[in-house]
Amino acid sequence: MKRVILGLSLSWFLGLTAWTMADDALLKYKVYDVRHKRQVALGEIMDDLKKNRFILVGEHHSDEHHHLAQLMVIQALHDSGARVAVGMEMFRQDTQRDLDRWVAGELSEAAFQKLYYENWDLPWPMYSMIFHYVRENRIPLIGLNIPREITQQVAREGFESLTNAQKGKLPDVTCRVDRQYMDTIRRAYGAHAHGHMNFNYFCEAQLVWDKAMAIHALGYIRQNPDRIMVLLTGIGHAWKWAIPTQIRERSDLPLAVMVPEVPDSVEPATVSGDDADYIVIENVNP
Length: 286
Fold this sequence. Notes:
Blueprint lengths: L1 H17 L6 H4 E5 L4 E4 L4 H4 L4 E6 L4 H16 L4 E9 L3 H8 L5 H11 L8 H9 L4 E5 L2 H10 L6 H4 L11 H11 L9 H25 L4 E7 H4 L4 H6 L6 E6 L17 E5 L4
Parallel strand pairs: 3-6, 3-7, 4-5, 4-6, 7-8
Antiparallel strand pairs: 1-2, 1-8
C-alpha cells in the first residue's frame, strides 16, 4: 500500500509541475531521431511533426514519466499553433458524448472520474494532467477503444466466438492474423506474455484492438481535416506494425510514431525505422 500511495503522490506532483513547465518543456524533453540517428530537443522536430495527421505517442501505462512526456508533446504542438485532437486508448468510442462534455466544461471532475474508471483501471492521477490540459485549452478528446469484454473474449476464445451483435460493434473489422504479425507480437511481448492463453487468440485480440482504434482515429480525422491527432496508447499498439499499419492500409495520410525510452528494452540501439520514428528521452538536467 505504501508503494501505491507514493506513486500517486508522484503523479499528483508531476501533474502540478506540468503547468509550470511550459517554458522549458521543449528543452527538458529530448528525442532521438531514429532515421537521422541523432538526439535533438523536442522543439527542433515541431515542423516535422506538424506535417503529420497522426502522431502516436506510446506509453507504459503505469509510468508517470511517460504520461508527462505525452503531455509535453501535446503542449508543444498546441503552443506551436497546431490544431490538436487527443485520441485515447483509455476510452471507448461510445463515451464520446461525455468526453465532449468534459472538454466543454459541462461535466464535473467527479463525474468524469467515474467515467474514466468505467473505461480504465489505472489511478486517475496518471492521466489527470492531460485531462485538465485538454479541458483548459478546449482540445478535443476522442475515445478510440471498443468494449473491453470483446477483446477479452477474443483473447480467450478467438474472433469467431463473437456473436453477430458483438461484431456489429466493430464496423469494418475483420481478423486474419498472418505469420509476420504473429512473429512480431512474439518478439514484442515475449513467448509467455499471453500467459496460458492460446497464442493465436492473443494475436487476434491485439489485431482487433489495433484495427478498431485505427478505424476510429481515421473516422475522426476525415471529419476534421484541420486537426492533428496525438494518439495515446500502450507501446504495443504504437509500434509501426500495429495501429500505424492499420491506418496505412486504409489511408495515405502521414503519421509519425514516438515511443518512450525504456532502459534495456526501447533504446536507440534496439529501435529501427521499421519500429518508430522517434524515441522520447527525458533530460532531467537540460
